[in-house]
Amino acid sequence: MATQQLDPTMLLTQVENLSRSHREHELFYSQAPLRDALALQTVSRTLKALAGQWLAAAPQSVAYANPYAGCDDLNNQAAIETMGVLFLEGEGEPAEMGRIKRDLATMADEHEQTGAWLSEAMQSTWNSALALLPIAALADLLGERHRIIAANWRNAMLSTLVANLLRRANDILDHVEFAPNALRDDMRQERLAPRYLYAAAELIDHAADLLAESAVVVHESERRWRVFWERVQELRATD
What is the average pLDDT across 152-170? Predict the structure, then answer.
């Protein structure tokens, strides 16, 4: 039933329910973006460590006979310690690089879905908030309620942008052939691979920054939710 069609008692009941449940829901989303931001920063550090290694190292001309020997010219201790990325003489792209790209794709899908759902929800919520205008006791808090909606709308757009950034970072990584022989050929020529890695890391860093910003936006709404919810509870108690 549309909010505008409810009588005042039912309207306050519904508003109290929405205020309580969505406030609790947002407590989760004040933390979740920070976890994703930290994961992305770890990926970025790994890519930058590898890029720095490949820009400075001389390509190894004689490979070890053992196919499981590490590629001394390609491996970087920080990349190994951070995400386990290990180049071996007899292997192609390290499994860890494939996992990094899959994780970026998965995170992009999740944030795209979150952005789309949240944007649609906020449009509906914005429309429903019109029903609050006739409630005189909420007049001084209408700005607070609409600021909450606007903040969530902003986070919807941030989620969509994060998804786009992560997908483009993966597009850039797809231009790098991570097999040892291909990387060594690149090191003997233009050394484009590390430049692609730096570019991908820059986009990933920006996505991480936006996620941290998203958490800040949610935190800023916490007091508004509390004040609004307490007022609605008071109105229901005297109804």
Answer: 96
